[in-house]
Every structure is written in structure tokens, then in C-alpha cells.
Write a structure and sequence with these properties.
single chain; about 130 residues; mainly beta; Thiol Ester Dehydrase, Chain A; 6 strands; elongated
Length: about 130
């Protein structure tokens, strides 16, 4: 069974860029949160504290997003290495007038971390597979 998670965000006026649409950096930040939530679920039952971002890959902006729209992020774990976890994120935007539409996609590689005896966070071999 695939590990998935969903995260939603309302686009507010302070998220808008100078051309009147959602600032791309804000969207990517929310996608990163969705990847972290997906990894949190994937890592349940391990000693990992969570996962941190290693690389954001293949970001593709497909549709503009306006203030007042909801964006829902669907994350799915697609691959797992010794410490890494690859998450595919699909961001769907919807308004009161329009059905949801695929606005952006990305692949984000996260690394599982745990705390060592000195209180530092280090890579963690999670031992999980997809």
C-alpha cells in the first residue's frame, strides 16, 4: 500500500506576486511541507524524528493560482534508499467557480534524521521500503 498524505492551504493576498498570481516560491515551500508530512507518515514506527529536504527536483508550474483559491497537495512516496525518501507532490488548485486543476508537480528527495547522543541531528537509516 503506498504511503500518502494530503495538505491544504488557502491562498491569501500576501501570497500573491506582482502579476497577481501565487508566488512560485510560496507554492514550492508548501510542496516541501507536504513532502515532510508524507515522510512523517512513512517513517512512523522508526526512531527517525522526521525528514529534511535534500533536493527539490522537476518542479513544473502548469496553471496560475489566484488569491482566494484552495491548493491541495497530494504526496506519495515513490522511492526509498537507506536514508532518502523520494516524494511526488501534485498540487491541485480550486476555486468556487472552477473544478480542481493540476497546478504544479514536483519530486522532492528528503533524508530521514534522528538525534545522536550529543543532541545533533544526523542521517538515519530508516530500513523501510516502498
Amino acid at each position: 500500500m503506498p504511503i500518502t498524505a494530503t495538505y491544504s492551504q488557502l491562498v491569501m493576498p500576501d501570497h500573491i506576486n506582482n502579476v497577481g498570481t501565487l508566488f512560485g516560491g510560496q507554492l514550492v515551500s508548501w510542496m516541501d511541507l507536504a513532502a515532510a508530512k508524507t515522510c512523517y507518515r512513512f517513517l512512523k514506527g522508526t526512531k527517525a524524528w522526521g525528514a529534511v529536504t535534500k533536493v527539490i527536483q522537476e518542479v513544473e508550474f502548469n496553471e496560475p493560482i489566484e488569491a482566494g483559491e484552495w491548493v491541495t497537495f497530494n504526496g506519495t512516496v515513490t522511492n526509498a534508499g537507506k536514508t532518502s525518501i523520494t516524494v511526488k507532490i501534485d498540487a491541485f488548485a480550486e476555486s468556487r467557480q472552477e473544478e480542481k486543476r493540476l497546478a504544479c508537480t514536483a519530486r522532492i528527495v528528503m533524508v530521514a534524521v534522528c538525534e545522536d547522543d550529543q543532541g545533533n541531528f544526523i542521517k538515519f537509516e530508516h530500513g523501510k521500503t516502498v
